[in-house]
User: What shape does this take?
Amino acid sequence: MPGEGPVLLDAAACCGLTPEAGAGLAELWVEYHPGLDPVTPENLAAALARLASSTPVILVTADLDCARALLGSVPLAGLALKSSEAAGAGSSETAGILLDHARRALGPDCPPLILWGGVALPEAAAAFLATGVAGVVLEQAHWLLDAVGLPEAPA
Assistant: This one.
């Protein structure tokens, strides 16, 4: 894995990694949903703290209580918030509401926030970035746009 770009793992896979395995990664994104994951928050915190010593770790979650608990013990490089518009497990809140709740709940000392879901248009990405979001995640639908092969517009 060394020398690769960002890597996304679930919490169970993350708990099995050693700091040496993560060394050289640009970033390690770890997705965690306490109600769905077999990993306890305590075990995840220990694994993330271990890995954060050798590579930047970004937590991907929709659970703000879990994020707040982990922020006290893990040096996160970022926090990716999965909204209700994101594919897979996510919050019951839309992107804008989740972002507002996160800012209020986590306070000024939270790591850079990244928004996952709810960003279908360039204008939406620009709006979120203008409000201080560190980044947005574009999902598979955006990757497939070039493959659609729409006919040319009539002259």
Observations:
- Helices lie at 11-15, 19-22, 41-52, 64-71, 95-106, 122-130, 140-143.
- The radius of gyration is 17 Å.
